[in-house]
Amino acid sequence: MTDPIDWRTLPKAELHLHLEGTLEPELAFALAERNGVTLPFADVDELRERFAFEDLQSFLDVYYACMVVLRTRDDFADLALAYLERAHVDGVRHVEAFFDPQVHAANGVPVDVVLDGLRAGFDEAERRWGITGGLILCFVRDLPVDSAAAVLEEVAPRAGELLGVGLDSAEVGYPPSLFQEVFARAAELGLRRVAHAGEEGPADYVWQALRLLGAERIDHGIRSVDDPELVRHLARERIPLTVCPLSNVRLRAVEDLRAHPLPALVEAGVVVTISSDDPAYFGGYVADNLAALAAAGIPDATLVDLAGHSIDASFASEARKAELHDELRAWRIARR
Ligand code: HPA
Ligand SMILES: [Zn+2]
């Protein structure tokens, strides 16, 4: 028998990661103190007690409450670099990360400040650890569509500093169709398009994200299993799903990992990738997600294949993808 795999050693890309969801309680309280901001939780322990979520909304309430500590360019740079250091330890070689500028704007922080800080963090991580990647601006689907359009126009002159746009936050009752025009404008600006769909919402929202928004990747997408025609479409067109197993369990989108639709999706030939979503809140970073899947009975060889999918499904250049595949090949050879 071969040794158990240390999933941190496996080269991989992380494609579904909310930077604000990497705000560990200790950093949240340190930033609150630095900025003279009061969090609605007494201390780190009380905040962690609030991590017993019942659904997506009960998580979002805590997640948005913590964001008030993020005020300055340095806060955003520190947040990004702290995550990227953990990602580096986790064997993440390429990251495509979300951020929610509408929420920061509501807190009085201009999108330019957010973007300057996050970009500084990414640039530093590339220098230190060779991690590549970039930023995906997410529209918050339960805020007015006008505010999504406004933030897009505000960043339009800096579109070249973004990889793309996404769609996140409370899903049910906020169908992708609401954002058709905003996504069309993003495409005009040369931005790639992804969208959260089929996390708590129905398979029809996945169809809408594909057909109305031009989404190239679906974030979560697990409810696609309810629609066999959709599963066949995803497989045939090689449309990747960025699946976040520990998130799905914590937010009760699935009962437990053994009931997760991932094996059915993989079996059907869908390009599944694994990510951590909001690792500070959901009990694990990406290697922890892989370890949890292995413990739940997913074969090691399947999980290694999914790391390969994460490279293919990324928006990295073809040259960078080839480099990452070389690293993965070397890893497989070293395991033999
Ligand atoms: O898991 C999520 N789903 C939707 N919106 C989010 N914003 C941060 N995390 C999430
Ligand atoms: Zn997400």
UniProtKB/TrEMBL annotation:
<dbReference type="InterPro" id="IPR028892">
    <property type="entry name" value="ADE"/>
</dbReference>
<keyword id="KW-0862">Zinc</keyword>
<feature type="binding site">
    <location>
        <position position="277"/>
    </location>
    <ligand>
        <name>Zn(2+)</name>
    </ligand>
</feature>
<keyword id="KW-0479">Metal-binding</keyword>
<keyword id="KW-0546">Nucleotide metabolism</keyword>
<dbReference type="InterPro" id="IPR006330">
    <property type="entry name" value="Ado/ade_deaminase"/>
</dbReference>
<comment type="function">
    <text>Catalyzes the hydrolytic deamination of adenine to hypoxanthine. Plays an important role in the purine salvage pathway and in nitrogen catabolism.</text>
</comment>
<dbReference type="InterPro" id="IPR001365">
    <property type="entry name" value="A_deaminase_dom"/>
</dbReference>
<feature type="site" description="Important for catalytic activity">
    <location>
        <position position="220"/>
    </location>
</feature>
<keyword id="KW-0378">Hydrolase</keyword>
<protein>
    <recommendedName>
        <fullName>Adenine deaminase</fullName>
        <ecNumber>3.5.4.2</ecNumber>
    </recommendedName>
</protein>
<feature type="binding site">
    <location>
        <position position="16"/>
    </location>
    <ligand>
        <name>Zn(2+)</name>
    </ligand>
</feature>
<feature type="active site" description="Proton donor">
    <location>
        <position position="199"/>
    </location>
</feature>
<feature type="binding site">
    <location>
        <position position="278"/>
    </location>
    <ligand>
        <name>substrate</name>
    </ligand>
</feature>
<dbReference type="Pfam" id="PF00962">
    <property type="entry name" value="A_deaminase"/>
</dbReference>
<dbReference type="InterPro" id="IPR032466">
    <property type="entry name" value="Metal_Hydrolase"/>
</dbReference>
<feature type="binding site">
    <location>
        <position position="196"/>
    </location>
    <ligand>
        <name>Zn(2+)</name>
    </ligand>
</feature>
<feature type="domain" description="Adenosine deaminase">
    <location>
        <begin position="11"/>
        <end position="330"/>
    </location>
</feature>
<feature type="binding site">
    <location>
        <position position="18"/>
    </location>
    <ligand>
        <name>Zn(2+)</name>
    </ligand>
</feature>
<comment type="similarity">
    <text>Belongs to the metallo-dependent hydrolases superfamily. Adenosine and AMP deaminases family. Adenine deaminase type 2 subfamily.</text>
</comment>
